[in-house]
Target: Indole-3-glycerol phosphate synthase
Amino acid sequence: MTVLDDIIEGVREDLAERRRALPLEKVRTAASSAPTPKDAFAALGGGRGGDLAVIAEVKRSSPSKGALADIADPAALAAAYERGGAAVISVLTEERRFGGSLSDLDAVRAAVALPVLRKDFTVDEYQIWEARAHGADVVLLIVAALSDADLTSFLALTHELGMKAIVETHTEEEVRRAVAAEASIIGVNVRNLKTLDIDRDVFAGLAHLIPAGTVIIAESGVRDAADVADYAGSGAHAVLVGEALVRHSDPAATIDEFRRAGRTAWQESGMSARS
Ligand SMILES: O=C(O)c1ccccc1NCC(=O)[C@H](O)[C@H](O)COP(=O)(O)O
Model:
C-alpha cells in the first residue's frame, strides 16, 4: 500500500462518517446558499503570467515531516498571507495526516477576500459539494487518485458549482490525462507520493508538456526565493507553498519576497510577456 492509498483509506472512512451525520441533500442545500465563488483562474493570472502568483497553504502537519506548526489561529495566518500578496489561500482539510479540518476552512473563508482552495484528497462528489457549502472556490483533484471517468465528472461538477479545480500531476502520463480532461489549472507536485521524496527537477521535466493558456502551478518543495525563481524560470505561473510559510516568523514578508523572486526570474528569462 502506498502513502496515497493509506491516506485515501482514512479519507473514505472519515467521509462515510460525515455523510451519515449530514446527507448529501443537506450539503447541497448549504452549497446553494454559499457566497458566489471567486475566480481562482483569474487570480492565478489566467495562464498568461503577469506576476508570479503564490498559493499560500495553511498546513499543520504532514506525512513527510510530522508536526510543522502549531497554528492556533488559521484565520490570522490566512490574513497575513493575504497582506503579503498571496493570490489564493490553500487550506488542508484532511484530518488524520495533516491535522486540518473543515473548521479551518470556515475560519479562513471568513477571514480573507481571496479565493480559497479546499485542499483534500477528493475521491467522491460529496467532498466537492461540501467544499462549496463551506465557501471554497477551488478544489484539488489528484490524477493519481482518480479514474479518467471520475476526473472528468468531478471536473464537470466543480465547474457546474462555479468553482475551479487544480488538477494535480506527478508524471508525464498524469499530465497527459489532465490535459485530455481539459483541465484549465494544472499543478505539478514534485513530492513523490510513494516515497515522499522531493525532486524539484520534476517540475521542469513536465511543465513544458502543458499547453499555453493553462495555469501551471509548481507544488511542494519551496524552501526559499531561489527555489521560487527556479520554478518561475521553468514555466510556473504560480507556486504552492506550505512548510516554508508556516515555519516562518514573517509569512507576509516571505510571500512578498517570493513574488519578487518570481518576477525577476521571468524578466531575466524573457517570460514576463508569455502566454
Ligand atoms: O506534505 C506531505 O508530506 C504530503 C504527503 C503526501 C501527500 C501530500 C502531501 N502534501 C500535500 C501537498 O501537496 C503540500 O502540502 C503542498 O504542495 C505544499 O508543500 P510544501 O511547500 O513542501 O509544504
Q: What stands out?
A: Residues 3, 57, 59, 62-64, 189, 191, 193, 196, 219-222, 240-244 surround LARABZUK (CB under 6 Å). The radius of gyration is 17 Å. The longest strand covers residues 53-58.
